[in-house]
Design a protein that fits this description.
There is one protein chain. The chain is about 40% helix and about 30% strand. The chain contains ten helices and 17 strands. It folds into three domains: about 240 residues, no CATH class; about 70 residues; about 90 residues, 2-Layer Sandwich (Gyrase A, domain 2), CATH 3.30.1360.100. The chain has a five-stranded mixed beta sheet, sandwiched between helices. The protein is of the alpha+beta class and about 425 residues long.
């Protein structure tokens, strides 16, 4: 997720050429409250930030005119609000109870839902946070009617100065030092905020100038300058007020910058992918047709093989069910029977392993130990002599004459014998 944020930040900064950083300060006196604006336009070019335009301590009318005349329309705005209507406090990071009850402790008998609270870590041990009413921020935002649609980040309190004080102020970190400018006073030591003062009145009448990249920066611009730099360093930072309208503005801004780039990139990638896909499809279509023809040939041959296997299986099944699948000596039996056949015996038919005619159905069987022989002879004596010769074979168990017929008017008689194997 961090890597993705870094990528988004990179593209946002590359596509964001200008940013307007604005601080709204409300100063109240006996005559009521007055709003003053400190603002500057920062240009981001080749990772170098320059101050293009600036305005200091302008009232509302003068600032509106300056924005309409000198700031390009649509320039994104980061807005920070400072006022004595914003309360501040420093707490220890491990003091979670006080932090969670910050609003009720600062403003007793109040509903935390009516307030915004914003925190900023000063170091590993302390947190600086600011609290203000939501309806006050609503008033400030609506007061900025002419440019509020361009506000993409909103914050309260002077905390952005803490991210820039080392670059803006030269000091010895080992010693206690004080930063005083305009309405703010901070006492720091070794990166720890020891004390602070935020006043509706100026704490310093000096208008000391600080040089930033060769540009003189008036001290009233320190807060908006720090906030603008903070955005350019972390454009996706969540350390801001969760103000829904401003959040929507920011999302729209990011979409206009990143969304359009992504859309163009996606369309380009899609076109290239489509072009490559067309070429690849044509190549593989030819290969497919060749393989399809080869596959059809193989499929037909496979179907033939399967049909042959099925036919073999059926035949084997018939033989298994008929009882003659075992090895037999048909040739041997035939040879033994005919070798002893005398000249006066004539064979018409020899049925080895005949069909069992008593069980003719789908599960017909053969009689494996029977041989039926039909033939002709001149006399019963010739038949009996041949039967006697056959019985000498050790594989024959018995021989019976099942039929014998001879008409005295005819020379040859007919016979049928049944041989039973051992």
């Amino acid at each position: 997720m961090q890597a993705l944020n870094k990528i988004f930040e990179f593209f946002i900064l590359k596509l964001t050429k200008k940013i307007l950083a604005v601080e709204i300060i409300e100063i109240r006196d006996q005559q009521g409250g007055q709003f003053f604006y400190n603002a500057l336009v920062l240009i981001n070019e080749n990772n170098k930030v320059q101050i293009e335009k600036k305005i200091v301590q302008a009232d509302h009318t003068a600032f509106q005119k300056w924005v309409s005349e000198d700031v390009p329309p649509g320039t994104p705005i980061v807005l920070i609000v400072n006022s004595d209507k914003i309360l501040h406090r420093i707490i220890a990071t491990n003091d979670t109870d006080n932090y969670s009850n910050a609003v009720t402790e600062l403003i007793p008998n109040s509903d935390p839902k009516d307030f915004f609270i914003q925190s900023y870590p000063l170091n590993d041990s302390t947190i600086f946070f600011s609290v203000t009413r939501k309806n006050y921020i609503d008033t400030i935002y609506e007061m900025s009617d002419s440019f509020k649609k361009d506000v993409i980040r909103l914050s309260i309190g002077p905390f952005p100065i803490f991210s820039m004080h080392k670059a803006l102020f030269k000091h010895d970190e080992k010693e206690i030092y004080r930063i005083i400018f305009d309405n703010y006073s901070f006492v720091l030591h070794e990166d720890k905020l020891l004390d602070y003062a935020i006043s509706p009145y100026r704490l310093s009448n000096d208008l000391d100038q600080i040089s930033v990249a060769g540009e003189n920066l008036d001290t009233p611009l320190l807060i908006p300058f720090s906030y603008g730099i903070n955005y350019l360093l972390h454009p996706l930072s969540s350390s801001n007020l969760e103000y829904s309208t401003v959040k929507n503005n920011e999302n729209n801004f990011i979409f206009n910058k990143i969304g359009k780039l992504i859309t163009v990139s996606c369309v380009s990638i899609l076109f290239i992918t489509l072009l490559v896909s067309t070429v690849v499809f044509a190549v593989y279509q030819n290969k497919y047709q060749a393989l399809s023809t080869h596959f059809n040939l193989i499929q037909k041959r496979s179907e033939q093989i399967l049909a042959e296997k099925e036919l073999y299986r059926k035949k084997k099944d018939i033989l298994d069910r008929s009882g003659i699948s075992i090895k037999s000596a048909i040739a041997y039996y035939s040879d033994q029977i005919t070798s002893s056949l005398p000249d006066d015996i004539f064979l018409k038919k020899m049925n080895i392993h005949p069909l069992n005619t008593k069980n003719i159905d789908d599960n017909f069987q053969f009689i494996n130990n029977k041989i039926i022989i039909e033939g002709n002879c001149y006399s019963s004596n010739d038949l009996n002599n041949w039967i006697s010769l056959l019985k000498k074979n050790n594989w024959i168990s018995s021989i019976i004459i099942t039929d014998y017929k001879q008409n005295h008017q005819e020379l040859l008689g007919s016979f049928s014998i049944e041989i039973t194997q051992i």
